[in-house]
Amino acid sequence: MTRDEIRTLIQDILADLLDRPSLVVADSTVADDVADWDSINHVRLLIAIERELGFRFTSEEPAGLSNVGQLVDLVQAKLNG
Asked: pTM for this structure?
């Protein structure tokens, strides 16, 4: 998958989780930029990504993420792993 495809997947999953169909995210988007993107929904997002793409994050991998771009990079690394 390309970075754009991964970002779109993350955007679509997050939009569904938060019931915000018009949500648009960029690499620089952080949780504080999106209403209702709290720690619980962050965990739900990670679980949905794992289910969709068929891999598991380690407990350490998502710990240092600060924006969508870093999440895209992590997902891409897991897919190319």
From this structure: 0.94
